[in-house]
Structures are given as structure tokens and as C-alpha cells.
Specification:
The complex is a heterodimer of chains A (225) and B (416). With 225 residues, chain A is α/β, with parallel strands linked by helices. Chain A contains eight helices and 14 strands. The chains are: A alpha/beta (225), B alpha+beta (416).
Chain lengths: 225, 416
Amino acid sequence: MKILVVEDERPLLESVVGFIIERGHVCEQASSLSEALMKIDLYQYDIIVLDVGLPDGSGLKIIPVLKSTHPETGVLILSARASMDDKINGLEFGADDYLTKPFHLAELNARIRAIERRRNFKGRNQLEIGDFLIVQEEHKAFVNGLPLDLTRKEFDLVVFFAANLNRVLTKESIAEHLWGDHMDLSDNFDFVYNYIKNIRKKIQEKGGTDPIKTIYGLGYKFSIE
Amino acid sequence: MRLLQKVNRNYLWYTLVVFLIVGTGLFLSITRILRNEVDEKLNQEYLAVREQVRIAGIIPDNNPMVRVEKISTPVPYSPTFSFKDSLLIEEPEKDSEKYRFLVASDTISGHSYRFEVWTSLIQTTDLLWILLLTVGLAMLLLVSGLLLFNQRIARSVWMPFRQYLDQLNRFSFEAPRKITLSPSDIDEFKELRNVLESFTAQAQSDFNNLKDFTVNASHEMQTPLAIIQTQLDDLFQDKSLNPQQAKHLQAMQQALSRLSRLNQTLILLTRIENNQFQGMKQIELSSFLAEQVESVRELGHARKLEFNTDLTNVVVTAQPELLSIVLENLLGNCIKHANLGTGIRIKLDEKSLIFTNEGLPVQLDPNTFFNQFVKGDPSSGSLGLGLTLVKKICDHFKWRVTYDYHSGWHSVKIDF
């Protein structure tokens, strides 16, 4: 995929761009509203990751321009304005999703994947990773062709892992992905451990090899090597 | 005590003292004047009677108020002369009546006589009482009239004060407009009005500045936090990390998560306070709640908790995002604090929603239970803002939220 990241904070821009490239996408960057407008005029992108607070104006101004020239481009808003009415505002403007700063790169990746999936709903709606097959629309996952009996959150977690293949996911990022920002469960990461234990058990019951590695002291990693 | 009451009370005391002093003085002086008058009259009568006796040598006996006796004992060289008071009992009514009489003895043409001239004091006593009563009545009328008058005046004079008080009572720092007080033509109130207007304007602007500062500071923090978070995420991917470094990284991640959540919660709290959430809706609470319970059911299973729900269909007016924050927090609390393997009861009826769980007693004052940064276990990673958030949102919805602990059962109740 070709992704444009519009963000004025240099270190943030660099790590987001680096991360997207590492995930195997083509990534370009813009650090101001005018630069972003110029780029979308010249090129076509699959997804734009857009910061709202740019030095020369609100990033939201790009959306109407984009919708008239490249309506198929997906928009993921990044905002420091952690408020729901901003979120609603952004979505009403035509953005696909909204992510509040600070965020985990794994979460950004999951959101980009979700937009990609929604945008190409005719195409790849199934994800194959080694022995695993994930059919998102039906909320089903298979190992060696056998269906896994996952609960909804467990399925969400598997999708989150799959989107961040071979990346270490911290317990914090997993907890936030599953339960959002407002559930104060931070001191109780046994919950995350419990979910992962259950998923492992269900995979092993179907004869699959456990793809979730515990990285001691850091978190978990989904890999099929 | 009301101001007017206080003034009136002092006023009444003063009037009473004045009345007592003036009354006593008046009483004494009038008594004196009247007595002199009576004595003068008695003296004249005595002189007339004596003259009669001297000229005609007759002892008059047609006047019951005059008694003249010839006495054998010779009168000393100079004639005696004195006044006396006496009470006489009058027969049919048995009333006692005050009299005054003059006793004199004199020698006329070689004979000694004793004279008594009497007069009734009834008229003078009556006069005295009438005078006192009149004065008293006048005083009473004056005082009551003044009180009434004062009250009338006070009501109109203090009107601006009452209005100011009323407006101040309804004043809110968060109000978009400045307070405007109606002008008054009384200097003191003019001054008060000026002071109040500038004072409230100042307070309002300070409050708004502080609020803006909080919001801006919180928002400005989000981007640096995001930078730290993404860099940390990258560091976590480093395969050459040794266990010691991993430990440091994890500690940083934990602190960063807390800081991020704290910041977001503070922003949320400020936005609720600023009334920046629109979109109040009619929400069918039982299905809304059931959905929330469903999403945390697995969390509960991790601690072997059973959810017992008793839900009635109730429609409430609320903002969906905020409502879900309330429910998430209360459910999260139950799950975190319930004893392993117990049950969580959720009861919803038309009037209230109650979450109950079995747990260890908390060392918290129920009064500060919903305060910011109050936590049961100070060492826990919890922010102590969850219930504050719940309380703020309930206040926003005009719901009442209360906490109760009773023999092992914690319950949080929301009254709609």
C-alpha cells in the first residue's frame, strides 16, 4: 500500500514513517498542510495518516479536497485533542477512523489494516498466516482448516496479533486495544495473560502450534517461524 | 437575625428606656404640681373658713369637707399648720379613695380652734393617669408607626441588595457572560455593585484562564507523550535487548501508560465540566448495559466471577459515550475488587441502577470515595480517577451516585 503520513512533529513523523515502511508499505511524508495538499494533488495514496493540528491549519481541511479528487483514499486521523466531539467531527468530515495521541504503533497498524480491509472489501478479506486463516467479516479463525472456538475479544486479539506479525506487543498496548482508554485495569495485566492462555489452549486443542511467543519482560509476539 | 430585626430591637430598647425616664420624670413633676395646686386650694379654703369664724364667730357645719372644733388646750404661741394624706373607705362600694387634708389650729378672739379642711384627690389622680396614658399611647403609636414605616422603607431600599444576592446565587464561573446587576440610586449599593461586577468578572476570567491552561497543557502533553510512546514501541522490537534493559523499558512503558491515561482522563474531566459533550439521547439502558456486561464477561471469567443481572427496561436520557464510560468503570471496579470466585450483582429498575460485589472492606471514607486521586491501595497502579469520572458524569446527567459498604458487600448506586 501507499501511505502518506502528515505530521508536523519530526520525531513522531519519523518513527511512524519508519514503522509503516518496516511493515512493508510505501510511505511518504508531509509536515505541513500545504505540503500535504501539494502531495495529494500530485500523487494518489491508499491511506493518509493525518494529524489535525498542523502549523498552517487544521489537517481536517485536506479531507474535502481528497474526497473530491480521490474518494477511494482512506483517512486515519491522529489528534492530540482527545475528545469525542472532535472524533465525531473528524468522522463526519469523512475520515475512516480516529486515533488519539499518544498511541501504540501496533494500534496504528491495526487501524491501518482495518481501513485497508474495509476499503478493499471485495478483495482480501481473508488473512492467511502459516497454518492460520482469519476471516474477518465472519469473525472466524481456523487452524489447519479447523475452526477455532474463540470469543469475540479473543478473536479481536488474534486479529491484533496477526496485524502486527513478528512484532513485540506490550501488555499495555494489548490492554488498550481490547478495553480502550477508560477502563483502568493497568495494575491487573493478569487479564491479558488469561486471554493469551485461553487462545493458546484453543489453538493447541485443534492441533496447531502455538504462534504466540512470550518475550520475557516485554510482552508477546505472534510469529510463525 | 435579620438586619432590620437587629436595628428594631435596639430601637425598641432605646424607646423603652426613654419612655421609662420621661414617664417617671413626668409622673413626679405632675404629681408635684398637682399637689401644690391642691395645697393652695386647701389653704385658701382654710383662710376663708378662719375668716368666717373670726368675723361671725360661727362654726360652719354645712360643708362636710370642713371641720372646725373649739378645743380647750391652748394653741401654742404660733398657729400650727400641716397637710396630710389619707385613705377613706366609702361605704356602699367599699372603695378606698384618696383624700388630702389640712390640719391647723389657731387662736381666734381668745378661743382655740382646730381646723380640718378636706379635699378629694380623685380628680387629680385621674388627671395624672390620663396624662400618662396619653403620653404612653403617643409613644406606642410613634414606635409602631416607625417600625411599620421602617419595614416598608427597608423593603424598597434593600431591594437592590436582594436582587444582587439572588443574581450572585445563580452566578456560575463557567457562565459565558459576565454578571450584570441592575443599577441603584443608593451610593452604598452603587459601590457594592461596582465591586461585585469587577470582582466576579475577575474571578470568571481567572477561572477561564486556568481552565484554558489546563486544557491546553493537557493537549500539548499529548504529542510529546506520543513521541515517547512510538520511540518506546520501536525500542521494544530490538532483538539485542538484554533482560536488564528490558526491565527498564517495561518500567518506562508502565509509567508512560499511567501518565497517558491520567492526561486523557483529566482532559475528559475538564471537557465534562465545560459542558462540551453534546448529543444527549434517549437510551434503552437495559440493552445498553447488557452489551457492556457482555464485553467484560470474559474479564470476569478470568477471576471466576459470575454476573447476576436483574434488568428492567428503562429509558434514560444520556450521552452514549459518557454513559459507556460510567458503566465500564463501575464494571471494571467490580471485576478488580470482587473476591475471587464470587458474584457481581447488577440490578436495574425504573429508579436506580445498583452494582454490588463481595470484597474486602476498603479503608476509605465513604465521603471522599468519589474524590480525585483517592485510592484504596496507594501502591496500586490505579489512578484513583475512575470514580471521580463516574461522579462527574452522573452529575452531568443530573443523577445521584452513592457508595455503600455493608458486611462484606460493596455497592454503588445510581439514582436517576
